[in-house]
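Shapes recur. One chain:

:::
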Amino acid sequence: MKINKIFIAGIMMLSLVACGDDLDIVPSQQKVDANLIVDQKSAETAINGVYYSYAMCGTDRYDVKSTKCSMYYEILPGDIAGTCTYYQGPYILETHGGSYYTMYNSYFWTPLYNTINAANNVIAKMGESEDSWFEGNRKNEIIGEAYCMRALVNLQLLVLFGYSWDNSSPYGNILRTDPSSVSTLKTQRSSVADTYDAIISDLDIAIEKAPANGKNCFATSWLAKGLKVRALMQRGQGNDYAEAAALAQDVIQNGPYALEENVVDVFHKNGLNSQEVIFGIQPKENQVDVTEQYFYRGSAQWYPSDALTALYENDPRKSAMVPVIETQSIVIDYETYSYYFVTVQIPVIGKHFPNAVFSSSTLAETQYQMRLTEMYLLRAEALARTGDLNGAKTSLKTVLAHAGYTDFSFVDAASSQYDVLQQIFNEEVRQFFCESGQDAAMMLRFPSDMVCAFNPQYADITMSIFPIPTDEFRYNAGISPSDQNPGYSAE
């Protein structure tokens, strides 16, 4: 399904969320300067600046305060994975090396490293702060939150720009652990193994120090545990799968979360009030960013891919997740440079829009970075990879039951490890398309033939990630053209 339309869009460079107006209180120059932390109040402002940066808060085209991250955490990773497609046709993988591809690599790179720098500033200054400035254990909690956010972003960078699937590869992250300055600009590229070690080290600190309780749009020790499960599953070395399964079970059994009776209610009814949400991004009041990205002025910009739509055939969530609607489409005749309108019935992305009402609302604009469902599915995947097929099926069927399934015969019929992984793959795609980038991450760790059957573009896995932006080679003397990802130029 490819529909050509006139392209009307604006992409802005984004600078720097969450629960409440307190995250609007950020330093006036919109960065987190280490010298700004002089007491608990300023420390809270600084850590809020990290969340503010991660949510890419700013002012939208209507001059409204907005979290502006739906394109980066939902849509473009979905396009890379092949779960959604742009209305003009192929957008990312099939056009690698083109203008959009090279444009978006820096759009990911810059804001994510801005968040890392914000976290580094907090970590550096908190290490120098006086214990007497803080009530109770708040100093350690803020430190834990900063480490958790740095790990979250480094893992996203590794999936988008590194060889996350190959622990022996030299193509890991440029690990920045100090506040940005002239003296720290020169930084070498780390190996994948060292990058995973750094991420997991940060998460271990966060597990120890971050608060166990708190709103689900702030980092907690439970989020850190969930991120460690992600990192271990993505790395997949040695005892990683067994450790991931145990850690996921810890979150499931002991964390303050519960699956929704019907998973659709997370998106269409409860939002961040859902007990299933471990970490999410709350929208600013009156923002329309998510709605405008998916449906620009009421016209769909992004559609579910044919492969995703096929996975929803006979699924109880189909009418909610990929509803079929009648819409007007513009068809372009490139030979005569003319266009005309046609009425079509076509599946659209309804995941974020209750009752297929494609207009902005708090529910439509809310984003979900981690849900308890992910822990069940990653546990199922980990158990399947260690050979515990019955345990994997049990965890998978729990998720399916909360998605409206009552007949699990297709799960029971899976007799081999590969067949069980196929069923888990299918459900992970259905659950996490256009959500927190997990659809793109999973494509890099499942069996290649399984992935290529869903998205043939992964036959050349070197083009499944972005190149390091040209500016990094221009200004960072610590790397050379040989550090660029294979298949791309440093120019």
About this structure: Strands lie at 57-59, 65-67, 84-86, 277-281, 295-296, 299-300, 302-304, 324-333, 338-347, 367-371. The chain has 19 helices and ten strands. Residues 72 and 108 are 7 Å apart (CA to CA).
